[in-house]
Amino acid sequence: xxxxxxxxxxxxxxxxxxxxxxxxxxxxxxxxxxxxxxxxxxxxxxxxxxxxxxxxxxxxxxxxxxxxxxxxxxxxxxxxxxxxxxxxxxxxxxxxxxxxxxxxxxxxxxxxxxxxxxxxxxxxxxxxxxxxxxxxxxxxxxxxxxxxxxxxxxxxxxxxxxxxxxxxxxxxxxxxxxxxxxxxxxxxxxxxxxxxxxxxxxxxxxxxxxxxxxxxxxxxxxxxxxxxxxxxxxxxxxxxxxxxxxxxxxxxxxxxxxxxxxxxxxxxxxxxxxxxxxxxxxxxxxxxxxxxxxxxxxxxxxxxxxxxxxxxxxxxxxxxxxxxxxxxxxxxxxxxxxxxxxxxxx
Length: 346
Prior knowledge:
This protein is an alpha+beta fold and 346 residues long. The protein has helices at residues 2-6, 30-45, 48-65, 69-77, 122-138, 240-254, 262-267, 271-285, 321-330; strands at residues 10-19, 23-25, 92-96, 102-104, 109-116, 155-164, 167-173, 176-177, 206-209, 292-297, 306-311, 343-345. It has a 6-stranded antiparallel sheet with strand order 3-5-1-6-7-8, covered by helices on one side. The longest helix has 18 residues, at 48-65.
């Protein structure tokens, strides 16, 4: 497990914003707006060549996943163009803490920004992302149809923290930046203990999705007309085994080798560790796959496909817990950029 963790570059930022408006209502797809608003602000401040890359990525992505007719026309005229998996050309994800939607003046709005792989660069955060946050704190992003009410252009940056293991250390407080604190892409794993059960008196068997998930073979594209399915088939419910596989796929996406596969991730394990994990998976496959679940479809304007809770037919083997907890940190499946694919185990 250690070799896998050491292969991943990641900087986790916890960002605390406070509204200056008396009443703020955030959309239930707030991560989508954060991506769009900050993406537009970053693009506006970049040099021409870099700005073109960001603009092109955002436009191609919009051609497939939004109702932007101009963007759709671009893809129709050039059907061989590759559609990027996210509207940012770097590996970044937004995770808005699902606390509530309505905030009063001064109440903290918390969300995480995670920069992963080659994008885990604090210099880029300081030079591009933080200025974009400062810009949109007083000036709403241009050409963005925001569903949130009273947020854009009307907030202040209260604090920004960086993760060191399970702890958060501030480097922006009350709007003041501490230049002596420079987060690195390896400190996220310092002292981090995955799979530790000392706070649990019984094996974990319940999985709660904190954000929508989409673990299909291809990313789900919301229909332009019509409704989504309201129920998930029992056969489509994620299993412990499929979540382990999804975690291997996710780690492979973040390895320095751009052509890495899940097999390369398995190869990072020691022979003994690989044997124990595979034995646990084989044992699960012999048991009942039946599980109880309360899963519902997410609103059509949000990414991901389903959300809710699952109770597996059998407790999660202890040897697999670290891999599932790593998956919850990295997010799994499609549309991770918008925070999809993270969960907690109980």
